[in-house]
## 1
Amino acid sequence: MEVLKLVNICKSFGGVSALNGVSLSVKKGEIYGIIGPNGAGKTTLFNVATASVRPDSGNVVVNDEDITGLPPHAVTKRGMARTFQNIRLFNRMTLQENVMVGMHCRTGSGVLRSVLRTSGQRSEEREAKIRAMELLDFVGLSKYFGKKAGILSYGQQRKLEIARALATSASILLLDEPVAGMNESETEDVYHLLTAIAYRGITIVLIEHDMGLVMNLCGRVAVLDFGELIAAGTPSEIKVHPLVIEAYLGSERG
Amino acid sequence: MFLNPYYLQIGSFIAINALLGLGVYVTLSTGQLSLGSAGFMGIGAYTSAILTARYNYSIPVGVVFGALAAALSGVLIAIPSLRLRGVYLAIVTLGFGEILRVAFIRLENLTGGAIGFPGIPKLGGTILERLKASSAGARIFSSMNGNALESLLVFAILLCITLMSAAFFALQANSRVGRAFSSIEMDETAAESMGINVYYYKVLSFTQGAFVSGLAGALYGHVASYVSPADFTYHRAVEILVYAILGGAGQVMGPLVGASILTTLPEVLRFMSGYRHVLYGAIIVLSMIYRPQGLIDSETSDWLRKVFRRKRFIDGGVK
Ligand SMILES: Nc1ncnc2c1ncn2[C@@H]1O[C@H](COP(=O)(O)OP(=O)(O)O)[C@@H](O)[C@H]1O
Ligand SMILES: [Mg+2]
């Protein structure tokens, strides 16, 4: 079953075409890779999928519902969450609070219940704290739960972003370069983390430059170049695809 | 000494100013810098004055409707201003305040125009009269200076309202709503992608700020018993902003401390007569240079909380 379908997405920024008729569909439970040279439009594709950028044309379908035109928070509510290539944590909040913000759309205490500290509000808060600890533990950061997110190392911040995205109870996770800037052992950690997330039945779409990670982890891979989808298939098919080789050699030359 | 009406009146103005500072705090807690406090204050003051002085509604009714009127205008300003940020929002809200001030001058039939609105019923007046009428109250009354009793009553009411508002905001800050507010303040894009309806929470925080500003304005009218457009100038809006910023706008404690210091300071400096404004300004400048985050930041407030906790723990142990 297809949980995420991008249909004919076009997007240009002031005459520069960032996406030109890109279509792809992601099946439930798979790890789907998106690769391509810098500036190919990968991040823009995530921005369009999560509604933070409105496409010029095309549709985004999540679990058979057309979500094109919905605001980003409504997309998250429908079970799709993301991380950012340039990490966007709430730096002056603690790790635990960061993860609890992710639970916002799965909890319901409004102003009145919050200020009156009703029993429902208190138990919701308690459960949110426990779940935040579980998620921090899952990504290996629970010992820093009360520290401010800003003090974490680069690699730890990327893991915290994943925990925060998981906190939304997403069934589809979009990860934008989750191991960028990480050393080998941290990359290995993330490899195991993503395997564990997929094991929970969560669908993962992964933008990554680390070819080793993509080839080991992804069942299928799509290749973007200059806003066009130039190839899609299994890692072994992609590796030998002439257009892909040309795009990568071309980009290295230029 | 504590019953000295002069001190009690300063205390009352501290309470009102602290309330205004809280209005800045809550608006700023979603990253919105508003200079509309004086305008919202005016809406609250005139609404309550008109309801009580012209239409004989009781003071509590006037005050509540004053605050609600300010909150409603807050919603009307917040929605079209949602896309504005930082100084741009500040300038729009400043303009809004000035438009209101001119409206207060022009709508003479309602507001009394530039001359002002005199004869606003005094806060605590009714309670005081009832007290005088009852036999027990009459006894207390005769044993005390009537002026002092009235000032004490007014101060007690204002202190109560201010502390309740501060408690409201402190509880809200440490909750799902408060986390949504600070996530928006720190990174709107990330907040939105975490499932937070950024528009809703920005309008909510702006409206809450307008509400407390209107509340403070309404109360101010019933304490001073006279208001005029000169009370709601942009100069006043900046003064209110300084209460929050100097005290520390990131914490509920901040505006309370800021308003207390800056309301007391001119009185303490009275002996310097002509130079007191210079020193007042200098103290603000120095404090902002040495503590740009405000006197109360998250560390001081954590520390205060810890001290308070420990004390409570020891109290419990003794029992
Ligand atoms: N918000 C934006 N405004 C203008 N141009 C943009 C914006 N976002 C992306 N672009 C442009 O779109 C193209 C694709 O960018 P991006 O999606 O970030 O590429 P990738 O993630 O594959 O490196 C680039 O040329 C980039 O400069
Ligand atoms: Mg990118």
Note: Chain A has two domains: 1-79+170-254, 90-168.
## 2
Amino acid sequence: MTRDDALLSVRDLALDYGNGRGVRDVSFRLWPGEVLGIVGESGSGKTTLLKLLGGQLAPDAGTIHYRMAGGDMVDLNDLSEARRRHLGRTELAFVHQNPRDGLRLAVTAGGNVGERLMADGARHYGRIRAAALDWLERVEIEAGRVDDRPTTFSGGMQQRLQIARNLVSGPRLVLMDEPTGGLDVSVQARLLDLLRGLVADLGLTVVIVTHDLGVARLLAHRLMVMQGGRVIESGLTDQVLDDPREPYTQLLVSSVLAA
Amino acid sequence: MSGTEGYNFAYLDEQTKRMIRRAILKAVAVPGYQVPFASREMPLPYGWGTGGIQVTASVLGADDTLKVIDQGADDTTNAVSIRRFFARTAGVATTTRTAEATVIQTRHRVPETPLTGDQILVYQVPIPEPLRWLEPREAETRALHALGDYGVMQVELYEDIAIHGKIKRSYDYPVEVADRYMMSPSPIPKFDNPKLSDCPALQLFGAGREKRIYAIPPHTPVRSLDFEDHPFDIDHPGTPCALCGDTESFLDEIVTDDKGGRMFVCSDTDHCAERQAEAGHDA
Ligand SMILES: Nc1ncnc2c1ncn2[C@@H]1O[C@H](COP(=O)(O)OP(=O)(O)OP(=O)(O)O)[C@@H](O)[C@H]1O
Ligand SMILES: [Mg+2]
């Protein structure tokens, strides 16, 4: 593919929190339908990079070009606040590791799922509710729970609700930060299955941050390995995991095999 | 007037009044937008309408006739003290008749008698920010207003329908002014919301503690938020007023004895008295 097909084109991205930590020299492209995994040890800059992509942090340097639904390529950091927010609740989605950061806990499951639609102008209660019910079903939450608050949900259900709340607007780029982190192993497996199904059915373009190389292998087409704020290795998932080039990646892979 | 020497007309000094008038002009220019102002200490506690009083003081002229309403009534302690305050500090005429007033300061009601272009209605506002309970961060609510990003309020209304089958909010029901800003109409019953729209009178809102002034200029469209399939509506109990028989005015339920006796009467005492007087004439 040529550069022009890319949905996301990141160049020389850098952010320093002021303490020498953050990310630097990050460049990559992402094509529609691709799932890019970001792996690396704790503190390597994965969440920072994701937040830069999602516009929650502004970079010190570098560009993030995004292809809008209309075809125009825009630098996310040049957008007005109004357009960036609009994009953030329509075309982009951000799934937090802790579902409590991505849900409104005082609002019912249906209200949580319907919010992006309402923020984008939906004003027909019946249709909003129908969309909420449809999405609850897709993430395997019983319709009978639609008027319950997420505080009454298990961790796995909360995470599935957060995913429904994000996907309801049909986003073109989904950013996920450790979506299976903090869950029991059996719950993780079910969520992973669900995510695989959604990614395949909807042809989602995803950037997923994970500690878990098993998750990376199951979901990601390509991987970027981060260390100390830099991308030290990237390539097709199987290639990176089965035949790592960098000593650091070799360590990362072997520690998982040992686990 | 004894005891008021040394005070300026309507209590506030001219410089303060000019500052407040500038805020009012800005509020009129941007309907529904909350304009910050340097709220002054008033010789009344917050909650007694210090914001409304400052607005009233700034628009009042020597020829004005002032009416003060508290929950529809002219004779509550609050209404009486504010009326007396301006009678003493500005020497203006006061009235309880809506039709005779040129400036009406109100808490929690809009008069039943239709207002005219010669009148100004000043609302006392405790909490000017309609998004306050949904978004406690001030910087964020400002951003939401600036961007017209009001989905979160719609979620609130969605929740009401999901849980109660209908939008339950019965007062301080949020409105959208001139197709742009979301605004709190102050804690008036939603029954009064339709009166805000296309009203010939200038409507000014003053929040003293929160230091905000906002406005609805005459004949401005004001829309109560709703859903296409759950449109805004006002539910009248259907009972007529026990005193004047009106079937369309907003009613208060009052307890008449200690045996559980109750009756419904007009909340707007001036409106009710007018109707009773008319009925007396006709009889
Ligand atoms: N707000 C902040 N202020 C200062 N330093 C920060 C801040 N947030 C993160 N850092 C530092 O920046 C580096 C990258 O953090 P980041 O959260 O991106 O790592 P991560 O790869 O997501 O780690 P984890 O796997 O633990 O979630 C770390 O050294 C972290 O301590
Ligand atoms: Mg992280």
Note: Residues 236-283 of chain B form one domain.
